[in-house]
Design a protein that fits this description.
Layout (H helix, E strand, L loop, with lengths): L8 E3 L40 H12 L6 E4 L2 H8 L7 E4 L14 H8 L2 E3 L2 E3 L1
């Protein structure tokens, strides 16, 4: 509950809220303690100015002051990362993204290949 005294549910779709600047980090674990001297400035969002330490501190301060959201993540992987971050004091739950299993389901590969004129030769696809 925050200043409005209402429950807040916050859905995360990437790691941006727990890092200084990255939506996803590669071989960097600085977000766990404090982002600084970012090794991924050339990655999305590409920049030449390293503000990762400033942003990490501001996010930590802002996201941990005066509210207590329930954090929802679409995967166990992201949930585990949030629990390793400065957001670990908040409740974190996994709710996978829903899919329509009538549309996204296994289909007959031969039917699809025939329908779209695709054949397999030597492991490669040819039209």
């Amino acid at each position: 509950m925050g200043r409005l005294n209402i429950p807040v549910v916050w859905t995360l779709h990437d790691g941006w809220p727990i890092t200084g600047r990255c939506a996803y980090w590669f071989d960097c674990g600085q977000w766990k303690t404090e982002c600084k001297k970012c090794p991924d400035l050339s990655r999305y969002p590409k920049t030449f100015i390293d503000s990762s330490s400033f942003m990490w501190k501001k996010k930590k301060e802002y996201f941990n002051s005066g509210w207590n959201p329930i954090i929802i993540c679409p995967s166990q992987w992201l949930t585990d990362r949030v629990k390793e971050s400065y957001l670990s004091k908040h409740r974190v739950k996994v709710i996978p993204n829903a899919i329509d299993i009538e549309i996204f389901k296994p289909k007959d590969k031969n039917f699809i290949r025939k329908k779209y004129g695709v054949s397999i030769k030597k492991g490669l696809f040819y039209l």
